[in-house]
Design a protein that fits this description.
This protein is of the alpha+beta class. It has a domain of 71 residues. Helix content is 44%, strand content 18%. The protein has 14 helices and 12 strands. α4 packs across α12. It is globular and about 65 Å long. The mean pLDDT is 88.
């Protein structure tokens, strides 16, 4: 597969990143699978190309740059730090076979603990400037507001953890909300299991990887969950209202502050959004016209945990976003052995810029 024009455009983008203070870095195309499996579980296999090496074990073709860049920085990078990179990434496209499974990314990452909202604004404003001559429309969101809402729900820690784990799978998230709110009938098989004094009595010999102790722990967890009162209809209604927020930033901020009266756990995240809006305006971004969607970014890579943004084509609705990015503070702690530094970044796809540039010409 040839990437000539896209590679040239990626190099030009990286030159702009360097002019903004970034240090160019490179990352191996073959990445250890263990790190990504630890982060995302077995589901990452559905999106990545996996191979075996007799000496290095299981490897993946690089599905993105962020994880290896974070690992590199957490091994001893200076602070603050800015990095840029270009190169191929590889994603399986089973749901969208018409989309490329190998393409170039040109990315920019900022590690800076001094003022996270200012760093968010720096990255977004840089991307907006780079894309100003292309037919694109920006969208923003904040995963931190939604995670704060889930964390504040009056339910068990196990249920909150399940909801947070499936935040990036909207249909599964909705199914869990319906179940935890008592709106979904309990399957007959689970009812029978919960009614049994010893579900494993007389069971067939165990096969598979799960042992008897693990199965019994799961049964105990199901009993505890069955005894948990449902999430209140009021809380579900507030969460639904939050997910429906889709306005320009000033009106979204006003709506979120209203919701924070009933969902006080989102208050600090909403005020971080307010500071970010001020920082964006200070960098010349027209915040009054900038869109904010509370549910935006829920189908991206799971490491985003705060500000998220994207730029989509206005002339090719069939294309994925030409640029995406966001904040991933928790990822730095996961890969840094507990050490943590606020981090934000994004990538641009030069192949898509070339496609929409031709359409807009």
């Amino acid at each position: 597969m040839t990437h000539g024009p896209a590679r040239d455009l990626a190099a030009a983008l990286c030159a702009r990143y360097e002019a903004a203070g970034a240090m160019p870095v490179d990352c191996a195309i073959l990445q250890p699978a263990e790190t990504l499996l630890d982060l995302y579980g077995e589901e990452i296999r559905a999106r990545a190309y996996v191979t075996q090496d007799p000496a290095r074990g299981e490897l993946m073709l690089r599905p993105d740059f962020t994880v290896p860049v974070v690992e590199r920085h957490m091994r001893g990078g200076a602070e603050p730090a800015r990095y840029c990179y270009t190169g191929e990434v590889f994603r399986r496209q089973e749901e969208h076979p018409e989309r490329a499974s190998e393409y170039i990314q040109a990315g920019y990452e900022v590690f800076d603990r001094a003022d996270p909202e200012a760093a968010d604004a720096e990255v977004f404003a840089l991307f907006a400037d780079l894309l100003k001559d292309y037919p694109v429309r920006a969208a923003t969101g904040d995963i931190g507001v939604l995670t704060a809402a889930v964390t504040g729900l009056r339910t068990s820690e196990r249920r909150r953890a399940a909801l947070l784990r499936h935040l990036w799978r909207p249909r599964r998230f909705r199914a869990l909300i319906e179940r935890f709110a008592g709106r979904t009938p309990v399957p007959p098989t689970r009812t029978a299991l919960l009614a049994s004094a010893d579900p494993l009595a007389g069971a067939a010999p165990l096969i598979g990887l799960r042992g008897e102790d693990e199965i019994r722990e799961r049964i105990v967890a199901l009993h505890e969950d069955a005894a948990e009162p449902p999430i209140s209809a009021e809380e579900v209604a507030h969460l639904d209202a939050l997910l429906k927020v889709s306005e320009t930033c000033p009106f979204a901020l006003e709506r979120l502050r209203d919701l924070a009266i009933d969902l006080p756990s989102i208050g600090p995240a909403v005020e971080r959004l307010a500071r970010r809006c001020d920082a964006l305006a200070a960098r010349g971004v027209d915040v009054d016209a900038l869109g904010f969607e509370a549910a935006y970014g829920r189908t991206s890579m799971e490491y985003y945990d705060g500000f998220v943004f994207g730029f989509a084509s206005t002339v090719r609705a069939d294309l994925p976003p030409v640029a995406t990015g966001g904040r991933y503070d928790a990822l730095t702690a996961r890969l840094g052995g507990g050490a943590r530094i606020p981090a934000v970044g994004g990538v641009i796809r030069p192949d898509l810029l070339l496609a929409i540039g031709e359409e807009g010409a």
